[in-house]
Design brief:
This protein is of the alpha/beta class. It is built from 40 helices and 14 strands. The strands form four sheets. Strands 8-9-10-7-11 form a five-stranded parallel β-sheet, with helices on both faces. The chain has a three-stranded antiparallel β-sheet with strand order 1-2-3, covered by helices on one side.
Length: 869
């Protein structure tokens, strides 16, 4: 026999189920099963099943139900000591099996049993109390299971679940600690620290208590972990350079510029020393590859480098200025009191690094470059020459094995000579030798000596190319073909799917070939799934590419980037209208995405490659890449690249007969110009978009709404006029979504100028439209506009209700800034209504949301300060 008390009560006897449903018979069986093995008195049974105010003759009714229950399930209920008992194996009852599984640590199986409410069809005081008691057991089991999943590394997947739990139980320190662990484990340590601060503030405010010792210890651990640790893995093996390392050790804080020819080991030296010296810089190590000598268009702009550094230093994006000078000043402020090492790798010129130099007393900067840069103020220069012969021999020996090197010293000398004592050449040649341990080293040295490219021993570049050629001859034909094609990649690196598309191969085949290239030291995998190679190797590979394979391979890669970027963009912003896309070329892999976070990660990882690829695409490919980048670059505040990408997209559209695409791209460009404060230029672009959309009322309406967004606070009347014109056009073409947007804009605008009754009128008009569409954020904005209107009219209770609703919709819609703003206005409404305690709670919630999201909380902090004194 098996029995269930989760949900409706049922019994399984000999494989046949009896469902009792919401009957008194089911209730009777349920209350006995919950306490299986224990005698329940007759009066207690009456109270459990019928409540504490039973009808007359309740005992007689109970006897009738007991008789029927015995007939339905014979042999189950026994009379004993003035009461009744069910004697079955407890593990046959789902409630008791749940408890057994929890005790055994099998929480996943236990939770699978308890998906429905305990005794859900019985509504008596006893049943409600048992459900309340069991809720504590269920939560404890759920949190035990969270601990298990955290131990298994499921940090990122647990964050949404734990955020919801923390919102329901904001003072539960165990949940708070688990959320902090999940955030930290998923690489969001700064968010984890912010949540600790929010929880600590709440404990102090609500309970007058300090965090537990466990939370304090966890916070200390996170503070240590939160310092940026951006250095690449140290080079292995690394030999020699004792003089240069000593000079780096002795250099005072400031700027050191390491210069030398390509392949001489500048980056290896800098990274090796940085790891060795890391303890001198407890507040972190910042690293960026500036790609100064990569393919055309791949060099990183100072603005992008600054954004990366500011993000690593946990500077909230809302505080980052749009201009380069402001970003540079903010970096100086962020580093003012910190002991930090900054490594600027592969710089092209002084202009590229100048904005990145903080010149703070405790920040030490190391720069690598192939060119002798115009030295920054008070910089030290460290020229790097070829490896000394002994160091070069030691480097080769560490790669091929010291026993092998000692057995053939003359061959070692030959290889070292032919590699011109360049670490890059020695690494490639050493990898070639290591893959064939059965070959005498002398035979490999002879192969090198026979290469025609060694005619001029003073030509370092020729020596490198000859070593590369030697290693390429040992590759399998498919791997050599892939290496040739990798020289065509436009960006600094490439994904597995990108490499597969470039070669027109399946993912497993491409992965195997990439592994072969990595073993030959011809490519690197600096992070899982992304591949790159030294600039000189890339140039050599591109020279090897056959003319007949270049165009098709590049077309496949650009197809992959353009079509996959569209897939990412429509998941990142689901409300965007998907553009029409061509069929991919044969062999192209188009990646799909299921979540917003997946799409964001891909777009930001491929952002430099997409920017570098756009000038090489067909008009359709270039426009699709620009369209896909528009929203993510806007939201991530990469405004310089936003402008560049949209300008490239507009140039591409000159070759396409697609006015809708041109109109959309002009809107994106105008929005980007507006973000950078170039309002006159933005307005001119929007005016151009109006002309493009002539005869297209919906397109013109969209432009008008964007022009309205440009209007400053002292020109809200003008914004309203543009919005009214947009509404009329949307009504003309029957675009309900556009009408709802325009009506929402009108409600907001009238609220801003103090015409509160009109704001409420427009909000009430648009609410059914958003409800019919199921548009969460639209409903939230409309409730927010209603709150503004009611507040302005002095109806503070209705305002509080409206802001409560808007905050709930914004929470479901995942818009933290809007939710935080709604809570602040909710607090204002409560205060105006005379409820200071409710106001304080709402403001506290707004403060927590803003602090947790890294947004400015100054306005709400000022409202809370009197309460904190």
């Amino acid at each position: 026999m098996r029995f269930t008390v989760f949900g409706g009560v049922s019994a399984w006897v000999d494989g046949r189920a009896t469902e009792f449903g919401p009957t008194r018979l089911g209730a009777l069986l349920g209350v006995l099963l919950v306490d299986a093995g224990q005698v329940v008195g007759a009066d207690e049974l009456v109270e459990r099943v019928l409540g504490d105010a039973p009808p007359p003759r309740a005992r007689a009714m109970m006897q009738t139900w007991l008789t029927r229950l015995r007939q339905t399930v014979p042999g189950l209920v026994e009379r004993e000591a003035g009461g009744y008992v069910v004697r079955v194996d407890p593990l046959e009852i789902d409630l008791h099996l749940f408890r057994h599984l929890v005790r055994a640590g099998r929480t996943a199986e236990a939770l699978a049993l308890a998906k429905s409410e305990l005794l859900s069809t019985l509504d008596t005081p006893w049943a409600r109390q048992r459900r309340q008691d069991f809720a504590g057991e269920l939560l404890a089991a759920r949190l035990d299971h969270v601990d298990t999943r955290l131990n298994d590394g499921e940090h990122a997947t647990l964050v949404p679940e734990l955020r919801a739990l923390a919102a329901e139980r904001p003072l539960d320190e165990r949940i708070g600690a688990q959320l902090i662990e999940a955030l930290h484990g998923s690489g969001r340590t700064s968010d984890a620290i912010r949540h600790f601060e929010v929880l600590r503030a709440r404990l102090a405010t609500e309970l007058g208590a300090e965090p537990s010792r466990h939370l304090v210890t966890l916070h200390r651990r996170l503070q240590t972990a939160s310092a940026p640790r951006q250095l690449p893995a140290p080079p292995k093996p690394f030999t020699g350079r004792a003089l240069e390392l000593a000079e780096l050790d002795q250099a005072p804080n400031g700027v050191v510029v390491i210069t030398g020819t390509g392949g001489v080991g500048k980056t290896s030296l800098a990274v090796h020393w940085a790891h060795r010296a890391a303890e001198r810089f407890p507040d972190g190590q910042l690293y960026v590859n500036l790609h100064g000598f990569g393919p055309s268009g791949a060099a990183l702009s100072p603005g992008d480098a600054l954004l990366r550094f500011l993000s690593a230093l946990d500077v909230p994006r809302a505080k980052v200025p749009h201009d380069l000078a402001g970003q540079s000043a903010l970096l100086r402020d962020a580093l003012a009191d910190k002991r930090v090492l900054m490594l600027l790798d592969n710089a092209t010129d002084a202009d590229q690094i100048e904005p990145l130099l903080p010149r703070t007393p405790n920040t030490h900067v190391v720069v690598t470059s192939r060119t002798a840069l115009k030295p920054p103020h008070r910089a030290r220069s460290l020229p790097l020459g070829l490896l000394p012969p002994d160091d070069a021999r030691e480097l080769l020996a560490s790669r091929i094995g010291r026993d092998r090197a000692q057995a053939e010293p003359e061959a070692v000398d030959t290889v070292v000579h032919r590699c011109a004592r360049l670490p890059l050449a020695l690494a490639v040649a050493g990898a070639r030798a290591a893959t064939q341990p059965e070959f005498p080293l002398a035979a490999l040295a002879d192969e090198l000596a026979d290469l025609d490219a060694f005619a001029d021993d003073d030509d370092v570049t020729a020596d490198l190319r000859s070593v590369f050629s030697h290693s390429c001859k040992a590759l399998s034909p498919p791997a050599l073909r892939l290496f040739r094609l990798l020289g065509l990649m436009p960006g600094p690196d490439i994904s597995l799917a990108g490499a597969a598309s470039l070669a027109g191969l399946a993912l497993p085949d491409t992965e195997a070939l990439l592994a072969e290239l990595a073993r030959a030291n011809l490519i690197d995998e600096p992070e899982p799934g992304r591949f790159t190679c030294h600039d000189l190797l890339r140039d050599y590979a591109a020279e090897l590419a056959l003319p007949e394979e270049r165009a098709e391979a590049l077309t496949r890669l650009l197809d992959h980037l353009a079509l996959t970027s569209v897939e990412a963009a429509v998941v990142f912003t689901p409300s965007r209208h998907r553009p029409s896309t061509p069929e991919p070329a044969e062999g192209v892999i188009v990646t799909r995405f299921s979540t917003h976070d997946e799409a964001l990660v891909w777009l930001m990882a491929e952002h430099p490659t997409l920017m570098a690829a756009m000038p090489h695409g067909t008009p359709t490919q270039t426009w699709l890449m620009g369209w896909s980048l528009a929203d993510v670059l806007d939201r991530q505040a990469h405004y310089g690249d936003l402008l560049t990408s949209q300008q490239l997209a507009i140039a591409a559209l000159e070759h396409l007969d697609d006015t809708d695409a041109l109109g959309r791209t002009l809107i994106n460009l105008g929005r980007g110009l507006g973000r950078m404060g170039r309002l006159d230029e933005s307005r001119a672009v929007f005016e151009q978009a109006l002309g493009v959309y002539e005869g297209n009322p919906a397109g013109q309406a969209g432009v008008l709404l964007n022009i309205a967004m440009l209007c400053p606070d002292d020109r809200i009347d003008e914004a309203l006029e543009y919005t009214r014109r947009g509404l009329a056009l949307y009504e003309e073409c029957g675009d309900e979504y556009g009408q709802a947007n325009a009506l929402t804009g009108l409600a907001w605008g009238y609220g801003r100028i103090g015409e509160y009754a009109t704001a409420v009128e427009y909000a009430e008009r648009v609410m059914p439209m958003w409800e019919a569409m199921g548009h969460i954020i639209g409903q939230g904005e409309t409730w927010d506009n209603l709150g503004t209107g009611y507040y302005g009219l002095g109806d503070y209770e209705r305002a509080a209700h409206a802001f409560t609703q808007s905050s709930a919709y914004f929470r479901v819609g995942g818009d933290l800034p809007l939710e935080a703003a709604a809570y602040e206005q909710l607090g204002d409404s409560h205060l105006a209504a005379g409820d200071a305690e409710q106001a304080r709670r709402a403001w506290q919630k707004s403060f927590e949301l803003r602090s947790g999201a890294g947004l400015s909380a100054d306005s709400v902090r000022r409202k809370l300060e009197p309460e904190r004194e």
